[in-house]
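Appendix C: a fully annotated inverse folding record. The material below is reproduced so that readers can follow the format used throughout the book. The structure is listed first as tokens, followed by the designed sequence.
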């Protein structure tokens, strides 16, 4: 109840009209965001509320209900909200055992392979796969890697491929000096690796998502952890239907439990 009063502030606009800010009930934004992306905030509603309140204030949107109306009609604003609310934590050679397993499978296949990373976040995972395949002596012409993510900032960063030291913590000094150049305390990935991965902004739940094709191997790690049970299952079905054959499993992360 007190929250209600705290979040309603009169704001003077153009000296002669007064609008009331209403940042009280973030529930409808949470529901809309959940339906669109699969992501739930259940135990973190206060975090969501703070983030959405700042988002609105920065853009002079005076209430959550106005924001909800605007994102339904303004795709740019909707994308900005998605970029603000998704968590993009990732690093090179994360859960490396699965990448080693993929390398073995690619080594044993006698055709060139298509690999999907959904989600790729800022690029560390698909680039790790490219580096590991090259390190195993596999020719770059034998694989094709696509990274997709719903977050457009993450995809822009993936294309630039300049990383802080923290993101390289699992790499050996040899790998770092072979594939990166150090510039102003940042590590820029060499063009020869960048050119092996393409990126696309995509929501796996969009109707158009499946039109990106079918793949020999699919990585989908540490995304389902943000979904409710229904969306985990839906995502699993979508990704499994995009395999070229039923014989390969989708590589989910160890925390992506069903
Ligand atoms: C924690 S990162 C995982 C990145 C990488 N796979 C890894 O394991 O290090 C989770 C990513 O999932 C993306 N994501 C969340 N919901 C999505 C959706 N519906 N479609 C596509 N990407 C989504 C987020 O934007 C975020 O970049």
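Designed amino acids, in order:
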């Amino acid at each position: 109840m007190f929250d209600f009063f705290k979040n309603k502030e009169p704001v003077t606009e153009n000296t002669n009209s007064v609008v009331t800010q209403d940042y009280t009930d973030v529930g409808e934004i949470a529901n809309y965001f959940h339906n669109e992306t699969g992501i739930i905030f259940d135990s973190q509603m206060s975090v969501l509320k703070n983030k959405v309140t700042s988002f609105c204030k920065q853009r002079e949107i005076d209430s959550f209900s106005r924001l909800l109306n605007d994102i339904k009609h303004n795709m740019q604003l909707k994308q900005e909200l998605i970029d603000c609310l998704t968590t993009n934590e990732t690093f090179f050679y994360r859960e490396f055992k699965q990448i080693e397993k993929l390398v073995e499978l690619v080594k044993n296949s006698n055709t060139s392979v298509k690999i999907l990373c959904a989600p790729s976040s800022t690029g560390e995972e698909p680039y790790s796969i490219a580096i590991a395949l090259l390190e195993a002596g596999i020719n770059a012409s034998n694989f094709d890697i696509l990274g997709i993510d719903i977050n457009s900032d993450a995809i822009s960063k993936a294309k630039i491929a300049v990383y802080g030291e923290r993101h390289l913590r699992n790499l050996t000094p040899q790998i770092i000096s072979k594939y990166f150049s150090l510039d102003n305390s940042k590590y820029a990935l060499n063009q020869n690796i960048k050119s092996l991965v393409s990126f696309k902004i995509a929501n796996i739940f969009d109707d158009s998502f499946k039109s990106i094709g079918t793949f020999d191997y699919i990585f989908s790690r540490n995304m389902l952890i943000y979904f409710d049970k229904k969306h985990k299952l839906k995502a699993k079905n979508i990704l499994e239907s995009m395999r070229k054959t039923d014989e390969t499993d989708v590589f989910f992360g160890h925390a992506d439990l069903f």
